[in-house]
Amino acid sequence: MLAYAFKRFLGAWPTLLVLVTLAFFLIRLAPGGPFDTERRLPPEVEANLRAAYHLDAPLHEQFVRYLANIARGDFGPSFQYKDYTVTELIAAGFPVSLTLGALAMLLALVAGVGAGTIAALRRNSATDHLVMGLSMTGISVPNFVMAPVLILVFAVYLGWLPAGGLGDGSPAHLVLPVFALALPQVAYISRLTRGSMIEVLNSDFIRTARAKGLPERTVVLRHAMRPALLPVVSYLGPATAATITGSVVIEQIFGVPGLGRYFVQGALNRDYTLVMGVVIFYGALIILLNLLVDLAYALLDPRVRHG
Amino acid sequence: MKTRLALVLAIAAAAAAAWLWLPPPADESPGPGSAADPGVFTRGNGPEPESLDPHLARSESALNVLRDLYEGLTTLDARGRVIPGVAESWETSEDGLQWSFRLRQDARWSDGERVTAADFAWSFARLADPATGSPNALLLAPVRGVRERAAGAGDAPPLGVTAPGPAELVIRLAEPAPWLAEALAHPAASPVRRDIWDEHGRGHARPGTLVGNGAFRLAEWTLGSHVLLERNRAYWDDASTGVDQVRYVHLPDRAAELSRYRAGEMHMTYGVPVARFYWLEENMPEDLRVSPQLAVYFYGFNTRKPPLDDPRVRRALALAADRQLLTARVIGTGEAPACSLVPPAFPDYPASTLPGCREDRSTRLAEARGLLREAGYGPDNPLSLEIRYNTGEIHDRIAVAVGAVWQQELGVETELVREEFRVLLGNVRAGLVTEVYRASWIADFADPANFLQILSSDSPFNGTGWKDEEYDRLLEGAARAGDGEQRLRLLAAAEARMLEQAPVMPLYFYASKYLLRPGVEGVYDNPLNVHPSRFVRLPPDTAAR
Fold it and tell me: How far is A222 from chain B (nearest CA, A)?
């Protein structure tokens, strides 16, 4: 198991290097540069800025310099947010995104697996249709529609919850963004769970378990649940990485100071260092979480463990 | 058994959901800094400021915060008019080339140190130094030595800013600048503390390190959320500051801002969503504030290559655009049609207009067709053009409306090219593929020259490639003409010359639009759209929730 984890860990580095290389050159391919603004800088000022950020050096030199810097954990200064370095921006935004994302994934997992299992057990009943109908709605109504509706109802009309921001950090501020973030995931996870649960419940070993006269509860929880969760677990890796690095839509609408908006704004501002920083950070997270997913697989599925 | 399991799972799911759904216990005693405190003025402030270093900031949102954190030699009052700031008085020499400022004895930095003339001398040098990388390096261009310094000349003459005493500052100019007092009120002309900069460098403009000299000091800056300012007790006029704290909420999304405002979480918004304007007029007329702003929206023509190197073609296109339709129907949120580059906000300025622009539609179109025919375009040889503009609700609609008129009335084959903002800017700058492009100018300070200088031959903002000696000569003449009627006449002559050549076609003048909670005092509509927080008064019943 340990050797397996170590092998996977080593295998992650080339992937990361490819990612860094692609991101570095792609963002520089985009037309327009970080200093192209509506109010153009005086030429000498711009030349100085380019020199200060080493943009005047040949591209391959810039790349080598960048690799050397990130090896030391230095993502460089942000082009746009002039008072901060990229590392500081990520360090400020990630805890917020992590809190929101982790709560949302937890909610999605509990509610999604619960609802999916119930639907599978009551296949084709009214409950099943209701759960699946709701989850279809959850998948098809986009965040940018759902979030303003939630705000309108719960903050503007009912006045129960704050309309946005993190305020003094009270849990009340988290409710709406967490809910809006979790909703599509609940929907997706419940559909995944239902599908795989139905398949497992029809398999031979479940029939054997039932034939042995095991109570239905034991059959579902001990025998069916573990294999039924496999597709959910493989979905969780990338989904968690995406959720805990923040959603630009949710952050903009709720005014939450997370990491998500940097993906879009960094690219729009041609903030090369910021884009690189968040891409590498996100990439590393996906690699890490996929590794965890594979380890979880081994725990859930004996065939992986012993094979 | 099946039922029991389902029940357990359902209860677990419901409990998890309920935990998140339940309203939290109401907090009866809001802590300091929460928006419920009656002494906190909460205002929307658009996108995140890129910096709180006065020399590096450029965006409106950053400048708003900086006006509260710093004070220049001059500053702006609640109506956007220039008033004495750190300088209590000043004199100008007869030739207008030497300005002597007397600084207040009681001007203090937020850490209690005295604000001295040497602070300003160092700060103006830092502003012009290309190593600083300031977008406003040329704000004080007429000051002796600034242009040479900003151009990186090694043999730059010494900067014309000297401090004979702690309370005396002398500025020597290379050319007269009657608008100097206005320019000095710009946040980029604020003093920055040399010792703090030396000690902290890039991190000098953050909570804990930033030392300012304005009515407020920086208490908190949560990126992506808000900036919190506290009353600066050391400020010389602290007694007249009306609120204890200012909370700038950063929300780029105007619809989200409106929700926050409607939920009672803000006193004032940064803007309003265009799509909701009619709804707001109908439902919140007492909150909605609309007033003319010193800013112009225009299309630029790339005059470097055919067909737009021909002034007749440019004039024809400019004449045909239906500005009334644009402002009244296409946008319809308080904007005014623009037949000139300089907004009609300067009573003494003898305004010029694009020739024929104010005629009725059929006359304008007839003249435009005539001009195009003269230039050799007609049904057998149709003109074809691209309009490039950046993504944005308004920009789309305007491009469609302008293109439609050109196409239908002049027979110009018009293609609309929508580009991401930086791509558009890059293309305008290169001047290779652009033909017609969207642009705008928001005044740095209230003077016609601030609008006209953008089209001078050496202006970095001139994306048209239009260079006109006569125009440059008139602008230079105006700069030398001192502060009087003659100066404004020369500026107007320059504008008339430019409009005749039509390197740009002005479309409309902006309107500033925001929501203000009824009862909040000290916020006045003004053409610069500046609202310093120190003049704001919050009556007790207007506390934001």
Answer: 12
- Chain B partners of A90 at a C-beta cutoff of 8 Å? none
Please report residues of B whose CB lies closer than 8 A to that of A252: 251-253, 256
As a whole number, the mean pLDDT across chain B is 89
Tally of helices (H runs) and strands (E runs) in chain B:
16, 16
Contact between B185 and B76 under an 8 Å Cβ cutoff? The reply is: yes
pTM of the model: 0.86
Q: Could you give phi then psi for residue B390, rounded to 5 degrees? A: -95, 160
Please give the residue of chain A at the shortest CA–CA distance from B127. A45
> Can you tell me the mean pLDDT for A25-40?
82
CA dist B258 and B270 (Å) reads 10
Task: State whether residue B190 is helix, strand or coil.
Answer: coil
Q: At what angle do helices A172-201 and A86-121 cross, to 10 degrees?
A: 50
A 188-247 near B (Cβ less than 8 A): 215-217, 220-221
Closest-CA residue of A relative to B133 is: A45
Beta-carbon contacts of residue A19 (< 8 Å; ≥ 6 apart): A279, A280, A283
Chain A window 48-77: which residues touch B at a Cβ cutoff of 8 Å? 48-49, 52, 77
Provide the pLDDT for residue B37. 52
In chain B, the percentage of residues whose pLDDT exceeds 90 is 68
Give the A window 116-155 contacts with B, CB below 8 Å: 117-118, 121-122, 148, 151-152, 155
Beta bridge partners of residue B300, listed in sequence order: B437, B504
- The confidence score (pLDDT) of residue B373 equals 93
| pLDDT band (50, 70, 90) for residue B50 | very high
- What rounded mean pLDDT belongs to chain A? 86
Binary contact (B137, A82; C-beta < 8 A): no
Q: Which of A39-43, A52-56, B56-60 has the lowest mean pLDDT?
A: A39-43
CB-CB neighbors (< 8 A) of A126 in chain B: none
Closest CA to B45 of B242, B230, B212, B247: B247
Highest mean pLDDT out of A52-61, A244-253, B334-343, B389-398: B334-343
| Chain A contact for B263 (CB, 8 A cutoff) | yes
Are the C-beta atoms of residues A184 and A105 closer than 8 Å to each other? no
Residue from the list A38, A118, A165 with its beta carbon closest to the beta carbon of B10? A118
Residue A253, chain B, CB below 8 Å: the answer is: yes
Instruction: Out of B5, B48, B259, name the one closest to residue A163 (CB).
Output: B259
Highest mean pLDDT among A118-127, A218-227, B116-125: B116-125
> pLDDT, tens digit, for every residue of A42-60?
888 888 888 888 888 898 9
Nearest chain A alpha carbon to B444? A39
Choosing among A37, A40, A45, A173, which should be mutated to test the B contact, i.e. which has the most B CBs within 10 A? A45
Q: What is the DSSP string of A119-172?
A: HHHTTTSHHHHHHHHHHHHHHHS-HHHHHHHHHIIIIIIS--S-SSS-TTS-TH
- Over range B458-482, report the average pLDDT: 89
Residue A80's closest CA among A26, A35, A50? A35
Angle between helices B393-410 and B311-320 (to 10 degrees): 110
Name the minimum distance, in Å, from the CA of B17 to any CA of chain A: 7
Q: How many CB pairs under 8 A join A and B?
A: 204
Question: Which of B82, B80, B61 lies closest to B72 in space, CA to CA?
Answer: B82
pLDDT score at B118: 95
| Range name among A127-136, B9-18, B199-208, B524-533 with the lowest pLDDT average | B9-18
Angle CA B67–B68–B73, to nearest 5: 55
Distances (CA, A) of B426 to B302, B431, B432: 13, 9, 10
Burial of B57 (0-12, 13-18, 19+ CB in 10 A): buried
pLDDT higher than threshold 60 for residue B545: no
Look at B20 and A107 and tell me if their CB atoms are within 8 Å: yes
